[in-house]
Amino acid sequence: MGWEALGQWGADAERVERLAGGVANDVWSVRVGGRLAVGRLGSRSDADLAWETGLLEHLDRSGLTVPVPIPTADGRLFAGGLVVMTFVEGGPPATAGDWRRVADVLRELHRLTLGWPQRPGWRSSGDLLHVSRGTRVDLDAMPAEAVARCRAAWARLAGRPACVVHGNPANPGNVRVTAQRVALIDWDETHVDVPDLDLVLPGNAAGLDDAALDVAGQASAAWEAAVCWGDDYAVRRLAEVRTA
């Protein structure tokens, strides 16, 4: 449908300015009902968007600061691949203390979502020990030696309780900090996996011991290599994953 779907949020709804949104989505600041919001247009399925918007509503009700879906005029949380969410104020983490606050919010996210169902079409790192494909991951496209290294890294986390992971909280652009609170934005890559993958933060802000940080760091590098396979960044991340 494209951006004409924005009209379903009201006759006065309008795009304002394009925002950074990666390659998978077209993201704009929008004005809906006279207030500034964020619109994200992509190709996710309705089932995928229902999972994401339902999660964000749950986290908002539970007290976390997240972008909250704004319903269309007839009450839907998305339409034609478009989601409109509240605009979250703040800037990126600037200090070690800010990153420790990020770690606290991530642990609360993980606590609130233990046992959450998997995002439709996605696979966890544990699943990928036995299957080859899930959403943006296609292990069949990688050299066999690279797949073996990734699976060895993920196997060290196998059997741990699963929960929702944000997916990329170490990117400062995905965090909004004020003096009062820390908010996580950009939930497009969120899925169910082991929480360790979220806790590889700048300056080891999550306070992992050396062994736990090593295991989590290897698994995280392997995940990003698999998700991004085909570009130079993926090759650099794979180089961080040990052969044993």
TrEMBL record:
This is Ser/Thr protein kinase RdoA (MazF antagonist). It comes from the Bacteria.
